[in-house]
Write a structure and sequence with these properties.
The protein is an alpha+beta fold. It is built from 10 helices and 10 strands. Strand 2 and strand 3 form a beta hairpin. Helix 1 packs across helix 7 and helix 9 packs antiparallel against helix 10.
């Protein structure tokens, strides 16, 4: 693999590691922030719906208070104002004050007058049919006539859940003792629930707790959140006036914030990938121009030196970076190697000249010495064939041995010079 491919591969691996690490970091640390913010927003939406529902109850209590703390109502409950119903209880007026029923009770818990109309405020409904729990003496709605305390809450009814407000009937100045109890009701119908959700900017519904199975709602009335890819649904239990978990306020909101978080992560990841690709392209171009090309030129110069043995050419790109320094140092090294090579060649030539001169000298010396020495040996051979006494033969033999020894020594010297 070439140097450029190795560098680009390294950049690619680093880019992939960086992108993967960024993705994991965003999923691990950034997305939970969006999810927590979305959860907090969903809690706020549910709280706004709950407060809107409480506002409706408070408005119902205001209506109740206008009638229950009034001398005319007080006198009617005591039986001293028989024309009270015809004078003040016009059912058609209830559409203006957003109520669907009024129930007047005396101190004995007997219903003096009462009426409940449908949600459209057109038809009168049966009180016994609508009130699932009979209005006995111990009914919570009749408590204010004894305790002078107000009851505000929800109650199950035949048509739809009821918002109920029960207050003791008092004089206009708030003095007592109570003359009875006044119960004002309003149906919590689909239109009102939709309006409450619209105020909070969510989709709301009000359902009976009996519609849910085990585990779908909390037994203690706390909020249970159910999440999927598209929406978050919160189920908040609400107790009725008896203290029983009878209703569930369900709020659903699209997971807009999480979607924004996921889109942000995807966009960021795409940006990282695009940046990595641009970085790789730039790295490919710059490494080829700044590193690969000059290193390739230096490599070709080395191959040329290896093939031709010419150390006189030195590469010089004119660069001032590390690549230029490498080329200049290589040029200096080649120059020194060339100088050393020329010095070695000169020394070799001188050594060869000295060796040749020595060889010539030994050859000439051996010829000049061996020729007369062979003459001596020849004369000794001739002398040996002449009549000689014993002493003369011994002398001649001694001379001959000495001449042979000298001839051997000269031959050895000549052989040694040839080997050298």
């Amino acid at each position: 693999m070439s140097l450029q491919k190795k560098i680009v591969s390294l950049f690619l691996v680093l880019g992939l590691v960086f992108s993967l690490g960024s993705y994991l970091g965003l999923r691990t640390f950034v997305l939970p922030i969006f999810e927590d913010f979305e959860q907090a927003s969903a809690d706020q939406n549910l709280d706004r719906v709950s407060r809107a529902l409480q506002a409706e109850l408070n408005a119902l209590e205001v209506v109740n208070r206008e009638y229950s703390e009034w001398d005319h109502t007080y006198e009617y409950a005591l039986g001293t104002r028989p024309g009270y119903v015809d004078e003040n209880l016009d059912v058609s007026y209830w559409t203006n004050i957003d109520i669907h029923g009024m129930l007047f009770f005396d101190l004995e818990g007997q219903l003096l007058w009462g009426s409940i109309v449908d949600i459209a405020v057109k038809n009168t409904l049966s009180i016994e049919t609508e009130l699932v729990h009979p209005l006995g003496q111990e009914h919570p709605l009749l408590g204010p006539k004894r305790t002078q305390s107000a009851i505000l809450g929800l109650m199950q009814a035949g048509t739809a859940p009821l918002l109920v407000s029960s207050r003791p009937i008092m004089k206009s100045n708030g003095d007592g003792p109570p003359a009875g109890a006044l119960v004002v009701v309003r149906f919590l119908g689909p239109a009102l629930v939709e309006e409450l959700g619209h105020r909070a900017g969510v989709q709301a519904s009000f359902r009976s707790a009996g519609e849910f199975g085990p585990g779908e709602i909390a037994a203690d009335g706390s909020t249970v959140w159910i999440q999927n890819d598209d929406a978050m649904t919160g189920r908040h239990g609400i107790a009725d006036i008896f203290g029983n978990p009878a209703f569930v306020l369900e709020v659903a909101a699209p997971r807009t914030i999480s979607t924004i978080g996921n889109d942000t992560i995807k966009t960021t990841l795409l940006f990282f990938v695009a940046s990595t690709m641009l970085f790789l392209l730039g790295g490919w171009i710059f490494t080829r121009r700044l590193i690969v090309t000059p290193v390739g030129a230096l490599t070709r110069h080395i191959h040329k030196i290896r093939e031709t043995g010419d150390l006189t050419q030195t590469p010089d790109s004119g660069r001032e970076d590390e690549i230029g320094l490498l080329q200049r140092e290589f040029g200096r090294l080649a120059e020194r190697l060339g100088n050393a090579q020329r010095e070695l060649e000169s020394a070799r030539d001188q050594a060869l000249a000295v060796s040749n001169a020595k060889s010539d000298f030994f050859a000439k010396m051996s010829h000049e010495i061996r020729t007369p020495l062979n003459g001596v040996l020849g004369m000794l051979e001739l002398l040996a064939n002449t009549p000689l006494d014993r002493v003369q033969k011994r002398y001649m033999q001694s001379i001959r041995e000495s001449a042979d020894t000298l001839l051997d020594i000269i031959s050895d010297i000549l052989d040694f010079s040839k080997i050298e």
